[in-house]
Write a structure and sequence with these properties.
This protein is mainly α. 77% of the residues lie in helices and 0% in strands.
Length: 497
């Protein structure tokens, strides 16, 4: 029992620092830009470089875990990630920090799928739900805690501490991994260089498209059109090549022939919109429209993550006793209800009415994540766990990137639409407009009046756009319900050991 606890601590600490790094840096970007002399567009490469490199390397988890051994690969990844984090902290130019973030992504990519595979192996099948609940805590709560921790570290020290914080935690994880993680037998695997090149091109193009599309006005920009072409050629070429190669491919696409794994991947891909909708929109609402300080924003958002953590701990004990499909379905309904209640926000909303719908959504997400992960691996052979975990994590990453892109694009476009609709009523022939200015002792021709009204219209347009996206988020959870009906509780035959 004590050995299992140490294994859990080792892999969870590694998972936490990797997942935290996807969001902890976001709030520090303006400070980085100022110190490194970069523009807003240039500094965004600190995020993009990490996401692209990690997305490319993530599917290779199974290959490296087989060829050099799972323990050796985990140790190499933790050590590399800690070293890259320290280098990011001492970076003196934009080029350096982008390069070191690329290295962070390369070494950090495998930490989540490796930890998931190790946790699944460390616990017996009847306790696998508990294992996925513990593992899910880091994966789901990390993105929520990231902005709060990042804002606090930046306020009391500097943006560099958003990277330095990884060093002591990573060192502990490295020591435990070297001490308690069991080694797995190595097996010969041929590197499929053609498949690797096609997959790398496809994933990099897709990640660039999703991450930069909103800021580049999508297909109006040549680089987005090029990345879309590269993504299409890479993904389609990889699928065609892999089907021809069969077992000799980089990873065997026949793994999607497992019914539960395929449906769980589809659900995880769709979950990106609902999972990250609130995480992206709430900071915009709290900081941009309601004027909350960054630390207060993090504290207001924290209950959502706490609710997710509590739900995961509870559901980890229920997975073996209750049909996981009921848990996933209940989670989707709760998340939809929470998102629906968010559509009632206004510029006068108080903290209580901000927190409780997010709390409800967090409970729902906790009910979804653990049973879905448990079902995904329920019918897979144990020797395919690492490969499956790499693919599942890649799907989760792509789903998150797609969800963030959809949310930000809808919010931007809808804000423009509402601004035009509201702006059409701002004219000297509108009695309500004249009455409003009269109360402020301003005239319609006064430049100050026009600036004031333009600010009010922009604020209302932004708020209306956020509420419209919350509606889309609510319906996305409802639309996922049919996938629950396609899941199977148990394998039709004996579950492989």
């Amino acid at each position: 029992m004590s050995e299992r606890l140490l294994i859990t601590l080792a892999v969870m600490s590694a998972t936490l620092i990797q997942v935290l790094d996807t969001t902890i840096v976001n709030v520090a970007l303006p400070h980085m830009a100022g110190e490194l002399g970069a523009t807003t567009d240039q500094i965004s490469w600190v995020l993009t470089s990490y996401l692209v490199s990690s997305a490319i390397v993530m599917p290779l988890t199974g290959y490296f875990a087989d060829t050099i051994g799972r323990k050796r690969y985990l140790i190499a990844c933790i050590a590399g990630f800690v070293a890259a984090s320290a280098l990011c902290g001492i970076a003196q130019s934009l080029f350096q920090i982008v390069l070191f973030r690329l290295l962070q992504g390369v070494f950090g990519a495998a930490l989540v799928p490796l930890s998931q595979a190790i946790m699944a192996d460390a616990y017996p099948p009847e306790e696998r739900g508990k294992a996925m609940a513990i593992w899910g805590l880091g994966v789901m709560v990390g993105p929520v805690l990231g902005p709060t921790l990042g804002g606090w570290l930046t306020d009391i020290a500097s943006w560099r501490w958003t990277f330095y914080i990884n060093v002591p935690v990573g060192a502990l994880s490295l020591f435990l991994a070297m001490t308690v993680i069991p080694e797995t037998p190595r097996r010969e695997r041929r590197m499929d260089w053609t498949g690797l090149a096609l997959l790398g091109a496809g994933v990099a193009g897709l990640q660039y498209l999703l991450d930069r599309g909103t800021s580049q006005d999508w297909f109006a920009a040549n680089d987005i059109r090029l990345s879309a072409l590269v993504a299409a050629v890479g993904v389609l070429g990889f699928c065609w090549h892999s089907l021809r190669q069969g077992p000799r491919a980089l990873f065997d696409l026949r793994i999607f022939g497992d019914h539960n794994f395929a449906i769980a991947c589809a659900a995880m891909l769709a979950l990106g919109l609902g999972l990250f909708g609130g995480l992206v929109l709430q900071p915009v609402l709290l900081e941009g429209l309601l004027g909350y300080p960054i630390v207060t924003t993090g504290l207001v958002m924290a209950p959502r993550g706490i609710a997710t953590a509590v739900a995961m701990l509870v559901v980890g004990r229920l997975v073996g006793k209750v049909d996981p499909r009921y848990l996933v379905g209940t989670g989707m309904l709760l998340s939809a209800l929470g998102s629906h209640e968010m559509t009632k926000y206004s510029l006068d909303v108080n903290i209580f009415w901000i927190i409780w719908p997010a709390l409800l959504q967090g409970l729902g997400l906790g009910l979804i994540f653990v049973p879905l992960s448990t079902i995904a691996y329920a019918t897979l052979p144990r020797q395919r766990m690492a490969e499956a975990a790499g693919i599942y994590s890649l799907v989760r990453t792509v789903g998150a990137a797609a969800g963030i892109s959809v949310v930000t694009t809808l919010m931007t476009r809808q804000a423009q639409v509402i601004w035009n609709e509201l702006g059409a009523h701002v004219n000297r022939y509108n009695p309500a407009f004249l009455e409003y200015l009269r109360g402020l002792h301003l005239s319609p021709t006064d430049p100050h009046a026009l600036a004031l009204v333009a600010g009010q219209v922009a604020q209302q347009a932004q708020m209306g756009a956020i509420l419209d996206v919350f509606k889309v988020t609510a319906w996305s959870f409802v639309a996922m319900l049919p996938l629950v009906l396609l899941l199977r509780r148990k394998a039709t035959g004996p579950v492989p050991a």
